[in-house]
Design brief:
It is a single chain. The protein has 58 residues and is mostly helical.
Length: 58
Amino acid sequence: MTPPEFSSRAGFLVGLGITPIAFFLALYSAGSGHGNYVLARLLYPVPMLATLLTNTTI
């Protein structure tokens, strides 16, 4: 069985590698405000749901 440190470290490194790719895909989807936010909503659901709490829209 693998130690917990390895699995948490591996998850951190995978997340660290995928986050910039997801960020640029979300920016590409938004199209400088002239596109849609489908990829942003799929890739970053928590910040999108946080707008419901502040009564602001994106």
